[in-house]
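User: Teach me something about this protein's shape.
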Amino acid sequence: SLEKAVELGAEFVVTHLNHGEGVNNMATARKLADEAMSRFAELSRSFKIPVHVEFLGYHSVFHDPEEFIDILTDYPELSLCLDSGHLHRHGQIHGINPYDSAQKLAPLVGSIHLWNISSHDEYLRRGHVPVHPEHRVEDGYIDIEKILYTILPMNLNATVIFEPSVPKGMTEEYILEGIEWVGGIVANYAASQ
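Assistant: First, the predicted structure itself:
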């Protein structure tokens, strides 16, 4: 709850719109999204804690970044949590370039969830695969470095959150290699500014 987040000293909370299953009408989906954003903004003001709304992009009709941006910008209390894995799945599902979507969403980003995935099948088997420098676009993975270099110029202070599942057989060393790799990307970008 937001009350608990404030009690624990959280810097912000992350939430997302539901998938809107059964809502196949854009006007209805947009109305529901606007009502949810309004409620999130009200809660943010009431509890005095920033709320970051995660972009999922899975909804059948309400999945376009411009629609999300249009509603989110009506609520200055809210920021965007850009999730690399969901962004990639969004692109796979809807045939949309995830890097173009990241560029459009970047100005609103307050936080970034990092994980990777090559396909829906891998997602079903392994969940949120930890980011790692071995992941290659030609193997179906999203280019994490490209996503970071898209977001960082718009908001160098965006909070990076690693959000992996830990599949059976995954080692701590593998996860730490990915974390250190991302840390190096962010540090190199910051040093160049």
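Now, about its shape. Residues 114 and 138 are 19 Å apart (CA to CA). Residues 26-47 form the longest helix (22 residues). If you'd like, I can walk through any region in more detail.
User: That's plenty for now, thanks!
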